[in-house]
């Protein structure tokens, strides 16, 4: 699964990452930067009196490869 990770600095100086699972994977840097600026300008996201997404810092696509350890949905019933 590929996610788009947007890293921002919050109003208290902490880093916050917004992970988008269904983002277009063909976006260029300037398009994403402008979207991050627009998001920051909404001033909508707060937690414990900190505004979370104030200053865009970085963005990257991240590919995740799941490794299944077990899946109870696909196991045969256990005989007693």
Could you give the distance between the termini? 38 Å
Radius of gyration, taken over Cα atoms and rounded to an integer in Å: 18 Å
Class inferred from helices and paired strands: alpha+beta
Characterize the main sheet: 3 strands, antiparallel
Order of strands across the biggest sheet?
A: 2-1-5
- List low-pLDDT spans: none
What is the beta-strand fraction?
25-35%
- In helices, the fraction of residues equals 10-25%
Number of helices: 1
Q: For this entry, what is the oligomeric state of its chains?
A: single chain
- What's the mean pLDDT score? 93
* Total number of beta strands: 5
Organism: Limosilactobacillus portuensis
Protein name: DUF2922 domain-containing protein
Pfam families: DUF2922
InterPro entries: DUF2922
Please name the defining characteristics of this protein.
two-stranded antiparallel sheet, 15% helix, alpha+beta, single chain, 80 residues, 5 strands
Explain the overall architecture.
By secondary structure, this protein is an alpha+beta fold. Helix content is about 15%, strand content about 35%. The protein has 1 helix and 5 strands, in the order ββαβββ. The strands form 2 sheets. The protein has a 3-stranded antiparallel β-sheet, covered by helices on one side. β1 (about 1-10) and β2 form a beta hairpin. It starts with a strand and ends in a 17-residue tail after the last strand. The model has no long low-confidence stretch (mean pLDDT about 95). InterPro entries: DUF2922. It holds the Pfam family DUF2922. This is DUF2922 domain-containing protein.
């Amino acid at each position: 699964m590929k996610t788009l990770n947007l890293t921002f600095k919050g109003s208290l100086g902490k880093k916050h990452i917004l992970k988008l699972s269904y983002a277009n994977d063909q976006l260029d840097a300037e398009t994403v930067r402008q979207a991050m600026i627009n998001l920051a300008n909404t001033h909508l996201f707060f937690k414990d009196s900190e505004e979370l997404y104030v200053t865009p810092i970085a963005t990257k696509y991240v590919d995740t490869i799941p490794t299944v350890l077990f899946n109870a949905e696909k196991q045969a019933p256990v005989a007693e």
